[in-house]
Amino acid sequence: MRICDRWMQEGTTDRRGRSHPPQCTTSREDRQIVRMAVTDRSVTARTIAQHIESVTHHSVSACAIRRRLQQIDLSARRLLLGLPLTQNLRRLRSQWCDERMMWVAEWNEVVFTQESRICLQHHDSRIRVWRHRGERMLNSCIMHRHTGPAPGIMVWGGIGYHSRIPLVRIAGTLNSQRYISEVLEPDVLPYLQGLSTAIFHLDNAWPHVARIVQRFFDNHQIELLPWPAHSPDLSPIENMCSMVAQRLTQMTPPAATPDQLWQRVEAAWSAVPQEHIQSLFELMPRRVAAVISNNGGYSGY
Questions:
Q1: What are phi and psi of 277, to 5 degrees?
Q2: GO terms for molecular function, please (predicted)?
Q3: Are 53 and 59 in contact (CB under 8 A)?
Q4: Above 60 in pLDDT, residue 147?
Q5: 39 contact partners, CB below 8 Å, separation of at least 6
């Protein structure tokens, strides 16, 4: 019936386009909204709305601010956490990647290791910043973090392409002698001896680079992978730790004691499928290429 009426009244059966309400901000205000979001990437939509209202004296909602920014492909995304990189560190990272840019199967021989502190009470402070797609590694979109003590447990673990080393719980402060007696001798050495070839990765933490530790590696003829400072983004075990952390957040209620936390961490570590670990190893050439193309900056992985 409506089609007949439209034909009689308008001489056509085509539907008229729906009208849209006028924008609540002017083009000048839109430019100011974008300028605020790009100048201070962590500013909230509510703060921008309050500023616009104080200048123009008419109310603008935070939802309207988000819509304006999304119209130019600016969305609130998670802030990338990273250690600060000096020009010298970027140069060393680029050099390290240049030397391994042709590695493919060689990565499968590397055993990546890491110590991590896991807190009893984890606060997920996911700060968001305004950025375009592809701007994740901009310096203004990175929160530089520094390591420091926190209440919880310290664990050590290692991953290889075909298997992983069981987690080790570290009590107190780990020095070079304890690193040998509690980690290398009982866990690392038997694991490496079961492999036909292996390249052992360790970061530049002081217990790892002590002379007594280096002598241990020399005496047991363990090949080491040199590692550039401030380069967690190059290590796939960082992603493994993120998988473990994600599994921990899904366990409710939160662990009440360090012993209970250790049981959950140990279970989460073992539950990650080896296929997921292998996919991380297979991404190593891309990590290396990303650092090279970014002039020693973050890989984005």
A1: -65, -40
A2: DNA binding
A3: yes
A4: no
A5: none
